Amino acid sequence: MKYMILIYNDPALEPAYGTPAFDAMMAGFFAANQTMAADGVLVSGEGLQGVETATSLRIRGGKAETMDGPFATTKEHLGGYYVVDVADLDAALKYAALLPAAEFGTIEVRPLMNYNPAGN
């Protein structure tokens, strides 16, 4: 079963770029990537640029409306994601716990919908 691991963090709480703490955090992400890849569960994963680069879109009255910024204004921002293919939620949580952002942010684990159960 595929799970999306969403990484939320408050930029004010994460280590500052260029510091030893930032380097240690990134080393933790690289180690998590290597573990997931070696275990054959990593489907994909990427970091996201800051919320200041986001554009939100919605359709109202048949017309597209766009807005600068994320959909919701919160302290914690979606900073990246992983998709893993594992047996169950417990396995997905095991890999989510490898992510260093769990120490200063929140990791959300959510199963992906399978619209083609026979083909996947």
Automatic annotation (TrEMBL):
Residues 1-114 form the YCII-related domain. It comes from the Bacteria. InterPro entries: Dimeric_a/b-barrel (IPR011008), YCII (IPR005545). Belongs to the YciI family. This is YciI family protein. It comes from Fertoeibacter niger.
